[in-house]
Specification:
The structure is a single chain. The protein is an alpha/beta fold. It folds into two domains: 204 residues, 3-Layer(aba) Sandwich (Rossmann fold); 86 residues, DNA Methylase, subunit A, domain 2 (DNA Methylase, Chain A, domain 2, Alpha-Beta Complex). Helix content is 28%, strand content 17%. The protein has eleven helices and eleven strands. An eight-stranded mixed beta sheet has the order 3-2-1-4-5-7-6-8, with helices on both faces. The protein has a three-stranded mixed beta sheet with strand order 9-10-11, with no helix packed on it. Helix 1 packs across helix 11. This is tRNA (cytosine(38)-C(5))-methyltransferase. It is an enzyme of class 2 (transferase). Keywords: Methyltransferase, S-adenosyl-L-methionine, Transferase. GO terms for molecular function: methyltransferase activity.
Length: 339
Amino acid sequence: MTSTELRILELYSGIGGMHYAAKMANVDADVVFSVDINTAANEVYRHNFPKTNQQARNIQSLSAREINNLAPNTIMMSPPCQPFTRVGLKLDVQDPRCSSFLHLLHILPDLASVKYILMENVVGFETSAMRNAFVEALHQCHFQYREFILSPECLDVPNSRNRYYLIAKRNEDFSFGIQDELNASFPSASLMKSQRGKVLQPYLESLDHEDELMKYLISDKTLSKYWRILDIRQKSSESSCCFTKAYSHYAEGTGSVFQHADNPSMDECFEKFRLNDEDVRHLHPLKLRYFTPREVSNLMGFPQEFKFPSTTGLKTRYRLLGNSLNVLVVANLVNLLTT
C-alpha cells in the first residue's frame, strides 16, 4: 500500500515532537514550514532539523495567502496550554495566548489545500470555549473530527501523560466512533507500541561515572523537606508520573524520581532514616536522583538521534521537554488520521 503524502505546516513547533511523529508514522511526510516564538525551543528544533524552514514568528503574522503558497495538506499543532490550566487561571479564550489559535480559525476557511489537522493540548481543553470555537470552525469548513484523551501507557510506555488530542479530515469521515464523543483509547489493535518494553530499565542511562551521576542527585535540602511526597521509581517499575516543565525545580507533582542504586532496600533505608531523626545521610545509599533529559526524552518517544545543543542548560532542557508531547502517541494518531 502506498503511504499517504503529507505536506505539513507545523505550528507551535516546540522542540520538534510533531515533526518526529510524522517521521515515525507510516506516511511520506515533508514539513514545509515550522513556526514557534520560543527562542530556546527553536534552537533545539534547528539543531535536529537543520534543513527545515523553521522560523521564529508569531502565528498571527501568517496570512492565508502565505500559507496557501506553501500548499500544505496537513496542519499539526500544539497550541499554548496555559489558558486551560489552573496555573494559567483558566482564562480560556480571554487569554491573550489564545489569539494566535483564534487567528488560525479565522483564516481556516481560506486554506483550501488543508485536508488533515492534528492538534494536542492539556486535559481540560475538551471542556473549554476554545474547543467549542475550534470544532465550530471545523464544521464550517466541512471537516470530520474525533477527540481523544490518551496516555502513552496504552502503548506500553511506563509513563503517565494524559493529553487531549483532536484529529480531523476534510470531506471524509472516519471509520470509527462519532463526533463529540471523547475516546479514551485507540480504536485499532494494529498500533506502533514501545519497543523498549513495559518497565523503566530500557529507558535509562547507565551514568557509570560519578561526575555524571552527581549532576542529577537530589540535594539533601530537597530530601529533608520533600521526602514524603517524592514519587520514587526503580528499574523494575512499570510506570512513572508525568514530567512537567518545572521538573527538578519543584518537587511536588512535577514527575517521578529514580533510585539509582540497586541495593540496599528502599524500605530499609527509609526505616533507618525515620528512626534516626530523619537524618538524610541514611538515604544517601539509595542515590536518589532525577531522571536525565535523555531518559525523559526516551519515555516521551523521541528517537536516539534527538539531541539538545550543548548550549541548552539542564533546567531549560527539562522545561522544553515538559512543554513537549509524546511522539509515539502522535505517530499513531497520524496513522489513524491518514488511513
